[in-house]
Amino acid sequence: MLYPLKFKPIYKTKVWGGDKIRRIKNDDSIPENCGESWEISGVQDDVSVVANGFLEGNTLQEVIEVYLDEVVGEKVLEEYGYEFPILLKIIDAKENLSVQVHPDDETAAELHNARGKTEAWYILDADADAKIIDGFNRDTTESELLQSIQDGNLENLLKYHNVKAGDFYFIPAGRVHGMCAGTAVVEIQETSDITYRIYDYNRGNRELHTQYAVDVIDYKKNDKSSIRFARTPDHSNQIVDCKYFTANYLPVMNSLLKEYSNIDSFVIYHCVHGQVTIKTDGGDEVLNEGETILIPACIDDVVLIPVKYSELLEIYMNKQ
């Protein structure tokens, strides 16, 4: 019988990484300057490995190959095969990340034989003056963009948001974006590692991909801000529902039964605060702050018992 699956995080050291992931996970063994913790990944060469139970040591792909729709759901399996469709990361930007854009599915398939990248950010931690970049502050054009990059003043075209913990931003493929110094996020995205960098703060040490980026960018002004959502305790408060993932905010104050027989999908929990015990017919697991767990699609009933007040992100595929 399948059970809630934990995975070994894949830690990636970055020149712009800091110590927030260490603090979030309360784990001093995490490498210094850790910029990313890949919590669940089906990306080729970076596939997650199970860390608990009788499947420990098997990759996520191997588990799907054996258990098929019991892991991901029938419709997800039909569309994605053995490739797990969501990549979940924690990102810590001690310094500004590059300004970038991701292609949509069609462009990524044509140019890279890969999927595109629509993503979302839940702000985990933010310094007092922390910001993110989310699109343009006015309608612009390709020529204006290229000129601003050449002149080194692209920042004048970008829309900046001051951020705080608990904010949520949805970033569709084609939108120019970037994390600024002092921000840590949970990133929910399509399984893809295709990124076009268009500006790197004149640091000059990494390749830019402007020739690809200009064809996929949405040049319209972004009028949207952070997504407002309800925060009702012991309830799945929907934040975003798109073709690539559904993300809910789930604060847990009391013992809570979650029934998933009506969705044909796995469920991911990421604990952004607190600690919960997860009980299923397949076994029990404790989910600590900063940890992620996968509930296979064949598990319909999950009981969440908070050790203390806890806040979860609840993520699945809405394929009805």
Brief synopsis:
It contains 7 helices and 20 strands.
User: Total strand count, please?
Assistant: 20
Number of helices: 7
Low-confidence stretches: none
What is the CATH architecture descriptor of the largest domain? Sandwich
- Which strand-content bin applies to the residues? 35-45%
- C-alpha Rg (nearest Å): 19 Å
| CATH class descriptor name of the largest domain | Mainly Beta
Order of helices and strands: EHEEEHHHEEHEEHEEEEEHEEEEEEE
Form type:
globular
Termini gap: 25 Å
- Number of structural units classed as domains: 2
- Structural class of the helices, strands and pairings? mainly beta
Helix coverage percent: 10-25%
Look at the structure and name the CATH superfamily of the largest domain: Jelly Rolls
Give the biggest sheet: 7 strands, antiparallel
Q: If you consult CATH, what is the topology of the largest domain? A: Jelly Rolls
Report on this structure.
With 320 residues, the protein is mainly beta. The protein folds into two domains: 10-213, Sandwich (Jelly Rolls), CATH 2.60.120.10; 237-316, Jelly Rolls, CATH 2.60.120. It contains seven helices and 20 strands. Strands 14, 15, 16, 17, 18, 19 and 20 form a seven-stranded antiparallel sheet that branches. A six-stranded antiparallel sheet has the order 1-2-5-12-7-10. Strands 9-8-11 form a three-stranded antiparallel sheet, with no helix packed on it. Strand 3 (42-43) and strand 4 (46-47) form a beta hairpin. The longest helix has 10 residues, at 142-151. The chain is globular.
